[in-house]
Design a protein that fits this description.
By secondary structure, the chain is mostly helical. The protein has two domains: about 220 residues, no CATH class; about 80 residues. The protein contains 14 helices and two strands, in the order αααααβααααβααααα. Strands 1-2 form a two-stranded antiparallel sheet. It is globular.
Length: about 325
């Protein structure tokens, strides 16, 4: 069997949640909608980082580079070309994918800690290049409010929410379907042992390249969406390492290498942020201490702690032996 009762119940809850979020423009306040947009956007970023580090074994600390490229795709295609901001989002994904493909031959010459540092350097290069381009206003930043001019406020808020839902839920579903495929099996094998994977005929370089490019595209699209809500793009904010550190916190707290982990981590992060944000430095100290405690005592995160006692698997990607009385599928 693959899906048991908890997985089926989680699927039903997930569908209801998607429907409820999609209908928020008709019943929720605008502040609540923007909070939902931020939560879904961070979930999308966390799933992309989890795909890289948790399943692909690619510990990147430079994903903010692709978030920033997505934001500046909004400047180029929205302000310079004149496209509607929401039409720029898929174009931002293409920009991120192309940039990732161009730098892949460089970063893939590195491994381990050297790979992590190399990705951070690449992100800094992106930031410095963009900050010195006068046609995107250089380091001073630029307003992108023109990209949504002519749209009613309600329409803009609704489209922002629906795009966030597509990215957040879509990233989760895409990773789930990938892991259920033979490509997903090969990806996990590469993470566990590249040498053993090669001996079995797995094309390690191709799989890592595909994951790297896909994660960059997802981060770039999310970056474009995030700065549609901010309406101003500047290099320091667009390429801030805070994007990657937040991804890292969410995935580590929730449980790296699981689909449930980023969801649990996103909920925990925003709960702590809303609860402790007014306490200033206490908020940051709490996040840091919580991260260290989880890494030291719960290496599989909050979701790993949950599964230790429940054995639940809400996104089953492998078949298991069914117990008596349960319907089983053929292998």
């Amino acid at each position: 069997m693959r899906a048991d009762m908890p997985a089926r119940l989680a699927a039903a809850v997930g569908v209801l949640a998607v429907v409820a979020i999609a209908s928020m423009p008709w019943w929720a306040e605008r502040a609540t909608i923007y909070l939902a947009v931020e939560i879904l956007a961070m979930l999308a970023l966390a799933q992309m980082w989890n795909l890289l580090a948790g399943y692909g074994g690619l510990l990147s600390v430079g994903q903010q580079g692709f978030v920033g490229l997505g934001a500046y795709a909004l400047v180029v295609f929205g302000l310079q070309v004149g496209l509607n901001a929401f039409l720029v989002i898929p174009l931002a994904g293409i920009v991120g994918a192309l940039a990732a493909a161009l730098v892949a031959p460089l970063v893939f010459r590195l491994s381990g800690a050297h790979f992590a540092i190399g990705t951070w350097v690449v992100a800094e290069v992106f930031r410095l290049v963009v900050a010195n381009l006068p046609f995107v206003s250089g380091g001073s930043g630029v307003s992108v409010a023109k990209t949504v001019m002519g749209m009613g406020a309600d329409t803009r808020v609704s489209l922002t929410l629906w795009w966030a839902l597509a990215l957040g839920a879509g990233a989760t579903l895409a990773v789930y379907l990938l892991l259920r495929s033979r490509w997903g099996l090969a990806l996990v094998a590469v993470r566990d042992s590249e040498r053993a994977s090669r001996s079995l005929g797995v094309r390690v370089g191709r799989i890592k390249w595909a994951v790297w490019v896909a994660a960059a595209a997802g981060c770039a699209m999310t970056g474009a969406l995030l700065f549609i809500t901010k309406l101003r793009v500047a290099p320091d904010s667009a390429f801030s390492i805070d994007w990657t550190t937040t991804m890292f916190f969410i995935v580590v707290i929730g449980g790296i290498g699981t689909l449930e982990g980023p969801i649990i981590g996103t909920i925990a992060y925003f709960f702590l942020r809303e609860w402790l944000a007014d306490l200033g430095s206490v908020y940051l100290i709490t996040l840091g201490v919580l991260t260290m405690v989880v890494m030291l005592f719960f290496d599989k995160g909050l979701w790993g702690l949950c599964t230790r006692y429940t054995r639940w698997e809400l996104f089953p990607v492998r078949r298991r032996i069914g117990t008596r009385g349960q319907k089983t599928d053929s292998a």
